[in-house]
Amino acid sequence: MNRVTELIDELFEKKNLSKEDFIFLINHRSEEAAQYLFEKAGIRRRENFGNGIYIRGIVEFSSYCRCDCFYCGLRRSNQHCERYRLSREDILQCCRSGYEYGFRTFVLQSGEDLTYSDDDICDIVRQIKQEMPDCAVTLSIGEKSFESYQKYYDAGADRYLLRHETASPELYKRLHPSGQTLENRIRCLYDLKKIGYQVGAGMMIQAPYQTAEDLAEDFVFLKQLEPDMIGVGPFIPHRDTPFRDFSAGSLELTLFVLGILRCMFPKVLLPSTTALGTIDPAGREKGVLAGGNVIMPNLSPQRVRGKYLLYNNKLTSSDDARGSVENLRNRMETIGCEVVISRGDAPGKGPH
Ligand code: 5AD
Questions:
Q1: Which CATH number characterizes residue 22's domain?
Q2: Which domain range does residue 103 map to?
Q3: Nearest-CA residue for atom 2 of ligand 1
Q4: Residue 88 contacts residue 121 (beta carbons within 8 Å)
């Protein structure tokens, strides 16, 4: 047995790998190693989730952003981005129709738009939970103070997604302007955990300048944080950003990372992301076969979908949401999986 398979076995047995081990694994991976990894990851996924796939409906409620991340199409400096905001009623309407299609988790996502006050956010969360008490609400609205996070939680928010983007301070600096720090990002993640949220971190694969060392650092960081969810997708360039000329991350490495994560964190909620579906027509199925167990279709109104572009060629189903859920059910069936109607909490966690 070679060293790579040995390391995969160690991961599968929940042994802690060192940063050097992760670097070795990434640098010496092969097609055969990937097949072996995905088998192991599949075992862990089925042990914890059977053949069930959780779905979450994303409502992208504002494309305004005060941040200026070099990779993101919504960055403040992008003059070509068409900005929009959804009203409370628009957002509720998206959730109501999502409920009919079988969604029991709504992810409210936006750029960092300070036009919505904490009270506005709390109001929206409260209203959704009041109308649909059997649903979970996930927020993905960026870096806030402990007090703000606490308010949203008290209003009923269950989960929070905030990708750490990279655990390497040097790389973080190359991806963000100087006002945005890794330190604050990590402070946010620990605040969210402390408050009691189910917390999601994550990173892009093959973002500009990212090395195997950087990815290894992400694994070591994630092991410390122990998040409930990990969002991972390939970097995809956006034409109106400073990173327009970099190439997209590969399907192959993204899948390999998903496999590693499933073995490291058997119970983690691991989305097969839209970005993965964007770089390969069967990307999301492949993501599930590599260890993913969550799919997050878009519930935003048709008229704004083309305006929430983190990267180019983003998958935007032209179907209505109902059609796309049906389509998803069928696609998951072809790989032996079943979309389930459930909040899909992290194992051992639930409503608060
Ligand atoms: N390519 C891939 N993912 C991106 N994100 C932002 N811009 C891009 C891009 N160009 C991801 C970031 C962010 C999440 C909402 O989308 O990781 O946290």
A1: 3.20.20.70
A2: 3-340
A3: 235
A4: no
**Token digits of residue 51:** 């053949």
**Nearest-angstrom CA–CA distance, 306 and 314:** 8
Q: How far apart are CA 9 and CA 218, in angstroms?
A: 20
Asked whether residue 313 is assigned to any structural domain, the reply reads yes
Q: Which of 58, 72, 311 to mutate to test the pocket of ligand 1 (most atoms within 8 A of CB)?
A: 72
The DSSP output letter for 105 is: E
Distance (angstroms) between ligand 1 centre and the Cα of 160 equals 16
Does residue 91 lie in a domain region? Answer: yes
Tell me, what's the pLDDT at 317? 65
pLDDT at 187: 98
DSSP H helices in the chain: 3-12, 19-27, 31-49, 88-101, 118-131, 146-154, 169-175, 182-195, 212-225, 251-264, 274-279, 283-289, 321-333
Strands of the sheet with 136-140, listed across from one edge: 57-62, 105-110, 136-140, 159-161, 198-205, 229-234
- Strands 105-110, 57-62: pairing is parallel
Cα distance between residue 328 and residue 9, in whole Å: 32
pLDDT in tens, 222-236: 999 999 999 999 999
- pLDDT at position 69 is 98
For 22-77, what is each residue's pLDDT tens digit? 999 999 999 999 999 999 999 999 999 999 999 999 999 999 999 999 999 999 99
